[in-house]
Amino acid sequence: MDINDIWQEMRDRRSCMLIDRDGPRLRARPMAPVARQEDGAVWFVTDAHAAKDDEIRANPQVCLTFSDPGDHFYLSVSGHAEVIRDAAKLHEIWSPPMEAFFPGGPDDPNAVLLCVRPEQAECWKGEGTLVTGFKIAAAILGERRPQLGETAKVRM
Question: pTM for this one?
Protein backbone atom coordinates (compact mmCIF):
# COMPACT_ATOMS: atom_id res chain seq x y z
CA MET A 1 0.00 0.00 0.00
CA ASP A 2 1.44 3.40 -0.98
CA ILE A 3 0.44 7.05 -0.64
CA ASN A 4 -1.86 6.91 -3.69
CA ASP A 5 -3.69 3.92 -2.18
CA ILE A 6 -4.17 5.83 1.08
CA TRP A 7 -5.66 8.84 -0.75
CA GLN A 8 -7.94 6.54 -2.76
CA GLU A 9 -9.17 4.84 0.41
CA MET A 10 -9.93 8.24 1.99
CA ARG A 11 -11.77 9.38 -1.16
CA ASP A 12 -13.89 6.21 -1.12
CA ARG A 13 -15.10 6.72 2.48
CA ARG A 14 -18.16 8.82 3.30
CA SER A 15 -17.44 9.19 7.01
CA CYS A 16 -14.62 9.19 9.50
CA MET A 17 -13.96 10.14 13.09
CA LEU A 18 -12.09 13.39 13.75
CA ILE A 19 -10.10 13.18 16.96
CA ASP A 20 -8.83 16.39 18.52
CA ARG A 21 -8.06 17.74 21.98
CA ASP A 22 -10.58 19.38 24.26
CA GLY A 23 -8.09 20.75 26.79
CA PRO A 24 -6.35 17.70 28.26
CA ARG A 25 -8.93 15.22 26.90
CA LEU A 26 -9.24 13.60 23.50
CA ARG A 27 -12.58 13.95 21.73
CA ALA A 28 -13.84 12.10 18.64
CA ARG A 29 -16.62 13.28 16.33
CA PRO A 30 -18.11 11.75 13.20
CA MET A 31 -17.43 13.88 10.13
CA ALA A 32 -17.93 13.68 6.35
CA PRO A 33 -14.52 13.93 4.64
CA VAL A 34 -13.72 15.28 1.19
CA ALA A 35 -10.23 13.91 0.50
CA ARG A 36 -8.37 15.71 -2.29
CA GLN A 37 -4.87 14.52 -3.02
CA GLU A 38 -4.36 17.43 -5.44
CA ASP A 39 -4.82 19.79 -2.46
CA GLY A 40 -2.82 17.60 -0.08
CA ALA A 41 -5.81 17.93 2.26
CA VAL A 42 -8.89 16.32 3.69
CA TRP A 43 -11.65 18.92 3.83
CA PHE A 44 -14.68 19.10 6.10
CA VAL A 45 -17.52 21.59 6.19
CA THR A 46 -18.23 22.55 9.78
CA ASP A 47 -20.22 25.05 11.80
CA ALA A 48 -18.43 28.34 12.47
CA HIS A 49 -19.86 28.30 16.00
CA ALA A 50 -18.93 24.72 16.91
CA ALA A 51 -16.55 24.02 19.81
CA LYS A 52 -14.25 22.00 17.56
CA ASP A 53 -13.08 25.20 15.88
CA ASP A 54 -11.74 26.60 19.16
CA GLU A 55 -10.20 23.22 20.01
CA ILE A 56 -8.41 23.07 16.64
CA ARG A 57 -7.06 26.60 17.05
CA ALA A 58 -5.72 25.70 20.53
CA ASN A 59 -4.17 22.40 19.40
CA PRO A 60 -4.07 21.76 15.64
CA GLN A 61 -2.74 18.17 15.82
CA VAL A 62 -5.57 15.80 14.91
CA CYS A 63 -6.19 12.22 13.92
CA LEU A 64 -8.74 10.94 11.42
CA THR A 65 -9.89 7.34 11.65
CA PHE A 66 -11.66 5.49 8.86
CA SER A 67 -12.99 1.99 9.28
CA ASP A 68 -15.11 -0.69 7.71
CA PRO A 69 -15.17 -3.68 10.09
CA GLY A 70 -17.11 -5.79 7.59
CA ASP A 71 -14.31 -5.29 5.09
CA HIS A 72 -11.59 -5.58 7.77
CA PHE A 73 -10.34 -2.11 6.84
CA TYR A 74 -8.89 0.42 9.32
CA LEU A 75 -7.01 3.63 8.56
CA SER A 76 -5.53 6.18 10.96
CA VAL A 77 -4.32 9.51 9.54
CA SER A 78 -2.43 12.01 11.70
CA GLY A 79 -2.03 15.59 10.63
CA HIS A 80 -2.35 19.30 11.19
CA ALA A 81 -5.76 21.02 11.03
CA GLU A 82 -6.89 24.60 10.56
CA VAL A 83 -10.19 26.39 10.21
CA ILE A 84 -10.40 28.29 6.92
CA ARG A 85 -12.88 30.72 5.43
CA ASP A 86 -12.57 30.28 1.68
CA ALA A 87 -15.82 30.76 -0.26
CA ALA A 88 -14.35 29.48 -3.54
CA LYS A 89 -13.07 26.23 -1.97
CA LEU A 90 -16.37 25.77 -0.13
CA HIS A 91 -18.23 26.01 -3.44
CA GLU A 92 -15.72 23.62 -5.04
CA ILE A 93 -16.15 20.81 -2.51
CA TRP A 94 -19.84 21.35 -1.76
CA SER A 95 -22.23 18.41 -2.20
CA PRO A 96 -26.04 18.31 -1.84
CA PRO A 97 -26.04 16.23 1.42
CA MET A 98 -24.24 19.12 3.14
CA GLU A 99 -27.44 21.16 2.86
CA ALA A 100 -28.97 19.00 5.61
CA PHE A 101 -26.64 20.83 8.02
CA PHE A 102 -26.30 24.13 6.17
CA PRO A 103 -29.64 25.01 4.51
CA GLY A 104 -28.13 28.17 3.03
CA GLY A 105 -25.89 26.02 0.83
CA PRO A 106 -22.23 26.92 0.37
CA ASP A 107 -23.11 30.57 1.07
CA ASP A 108 -24.51 29.74 4.52
CA PRO A 109 -22.74 32.13 6.94
CA ASN A 110 -22.25 29.32 9.48
CA ALA A 111 -20.41 27.05 7.02
CA VAL A 112 -16.61 27.13 7.29
CA LEU A 113 -13.91 24.73 6.17
CA LEU A 114 -11.80 22.53 8.36
CA CYS A 115 -8.66 21.55 6.47
CA VAL A 116 -6.56 18.59 7.63
CA ARG A 117 -3.15 18.20 6.04
CA PRO A 118 -2.10 14.57 6.53
CA GLU A 119 1.42 13.91 7.81
CA GLN A 120 1.34 10.17 8.45
CA ALA A 121 -1.06 7.29 7.83
CA GLU A 122 -1.27 3.74 9.09
CA CYS A 123 -3.53 1.24 7.41
CA TRP A 124 -4.66 -2.28 8.20
CA LYS A 125 -6.48 -4.16 5.49
CA GLY A 126 -7.62 -7.76 5.87
CA GLU A 127 -9.64 -10.37 4.11
CA GLY A 128 -13.33 -11.18 4.44
CA THR A 129 -14.94 -12.48 7.62
CA LEU A 130 -15.04 -16.13 6.53
CA VAL A 131 -11.36 -16.21 5.54
CA THR A 132 -10.35 -14.34 8.71
CA GLY A 133 -12.34 -16.74 10.88
CA PHE A 134 -10.70 -19.73 9.21
CA LYS A 135 -7.21 -18.24 9.69
CA ILE A 136 -7.89 -17.53 13.38
CA ALA A 137 -9.13 -21.09 13.93
CA ALA A 138 -6.12 -22.53 12.10
CA ALA A 139 -3.77 -20.36 14.17
CA ILE A 140 -5.38 -21.50 17.44
CA LEU A 141 -5.10 -25.14 16.42
CA GLY A 142 -1.56 -24.64 15.18
CA GLU A 143 -0.56 -22.43 18.13
CA ARG A 144 0.79 -19.65 15.95
CA ARG A 145 -0.16 -16.05 15.22
CA PRO A 146 -2.50 -15.65 12.22
CA GLN A 147 -1.59 -13.49 9.23
CA LEU A 148 -4.80 -11.49 8.75
CA GLY A 149 -3.86 -9.05 6.02
CA GLU A 150 -1.48 -6.23 5.27
CA THR A 151 -0.44 -3.27 7.36
CA ALA A 152 1.40 -0.20 6.14
CA LYS A 153 2.78 3.04 7.56
CA VAL A 154 3.06 5.87 5.04
CA ARG A 155 4.56 9.35 5.39
CA MET A 156 2.18 11.71 3.66
Answer: 0.82
